[in-house]
Design goal:
It is a single chain. The protein has helices spanning 10-26, 91-99, 127-131, 137-151, 159-178, 183-190, 198-207, 235-248, 261-272, 296-309, 350-359; strands at residues 2-5, 33-36, 39-43, 49-55, 59-65, 105-110, 113-117, 227-231, 277-282, 287-289, 319-324, 329-334, 378-382. Helix content is 35%, strand content 18%. The protein is an alpha+beta fold and 384 residues long. The chain contains 11 helices and 13 strands. It has 2 domains: 2-225, no CATH class; 230-382, no CATH class.
Length: 384
Amino acid sequence: MLTDVDLPAPGLLWPRWVTLAASLTGIGWSDVWYVDDEGAHYDDHGGTWARFALLDGARAVLFGYDREHSATADADPPIDLLTGAPSWLPWDALTPLAESDRLGFVVWHEQGRWSRVRYRDGVGDGLVEAVGAVLSGENAMGQLTEIIAEWGRHELDTPQERDEVRAASEQMLAAAVRGVISANEFERLLGRVPALDLKAALFAAGRGGVTAGTRPPRIPAGVRPTMRRVRRLSRGEHDRLIWAAMQDARELDRMRPPHTDELDALVAWMRESAVGTVMAYSDATSVSIQGREADQQLSRLLSALRRAEADPRHGSWLFLLVETTATDVRAERHYDSWPPWWPDDEGPWRSHLVEEMDARDPRWRPGWTRLLDPSVAYKESSTR
């Protein structure tokens, strides 16, 4: 099901975007806000990105991902952002992003309105956080001020100069909307920044089609694929599927590991620390201890014991229960199954399980290993 989205018209979004891109390019930053043949881009080089493209027929598409606010990419249950999307979208770009959980929002403009897939209440897509700088004229002027003060390292010391920058920003944005930005606008706004490269700024503005005699680039209409992979299980659902299978599994018939000095060291620490029971999960890169705060010494002892007891064929245990008294020791190891004494909502990372199972001889891999395959979380779906 689709829903309308309240966004400025492409004819306003585009010149704001290009103005920011050209201004940053003019002071030496050409890879944050920028324009190329595929449209307008934003990349904070920290995981947040967006792309805005124009097409013939007054159509446009805006898509991207915010590393902190795109809950849609990891929603539980999953959200398919492309269900019901029009055939003219750039599917070649969108499909792999959706399959790899790197797509937080997709909105498209057609017949005078913006549309997108409807989400559940409370699920954020990160669009406003990613491209808020171009969603209003006020925001764009604020970003231009930041370009001077932060990116250009020019202190705006007086109210008069701040007013001048605001007026120059407003003039530049108005010229961009009319497609007539010139050297005068850049000099008035950015001339106070010593690093201004006027030629580079004008070239970027022309590439974006906001100087006299130029036009914005347009991408060709896309082709909807006949079939595509759609996530049917969220990452959380996939984890829970594996954990449930581990809880139902039985241990394969393997010999107990030989007694080691590392076990003696663990037992000695437990007795000295008056710790009667230790329940732990461990793999090659992590240790989790039930009911105890992080204890580096205990973690090191557990990791050392796991390495000492590892077998090159049947691998290493994943869960360990050790109980001690003054005279006795009991150790319970689980290589293939999830013990009843471990909480069912604190499971191991899937990637860590993959690493463990890949290191084992195939004969010593439990049946749930097949569920680790990423393809389990997807289904082939028709896009018609």
